[in-house]
Amino acid sequence: MKTIKMLLAFTIFLGLVGFVPNGGQRLVSDTHPTIDDLIGTWELVSFKYGEEQSFSPRPDFIGYRKLITPTHFVYVSFEEGKEAIDYAGGGTFTLKDGIYTEHIEFYYPGDSKLLGSAMPFQCKIQDKRWHHSGYIIEREFDIDKGVYKVVKRQRIEEIWQRVD
């Protein structure tokens, strides 16, 4: 029974963080990263949102994590030391020619205007940190027209470091 529990835990772990090909060696590039470069767990280090001119460090009391598998991503924000999630989201992603695109398929809390969005980011790995920049796109459903419309675009630049 103990072996089955360990095997189940290991299977869940692989499903969450993916498996790292190339014997665990990451192919780190200052130009366009590969999917293998991104697989793993990342922690937000600093950010610039909107019209901010300089990067701000992540506040110590807030945790931001992003988990990348070969096909999916999940991100979560939480207060350090508490047992509650502020927000979380995830879905599938694509990576081509330095453009990392998140396809938001689920989000908590459920009233998010990010749900259903595809958000492309230019990205690179530099000095073992993942840099990405683009726009957060919020959408609303237009009942009269029966389609989603963009209600807000906000510039975003983030720097993430791998959590080993």
From TrEMBL:
Report the domain of life of the source organism.
Answer: Bacteria
Q: What is this protein called?
A: DUF4488 domain-containing protein
Q: Give the taxonomic lineage as stored in the record.
A: Bacteria, Pseudomonadati, Bacteroidota, Cytophagia, Cytophagales
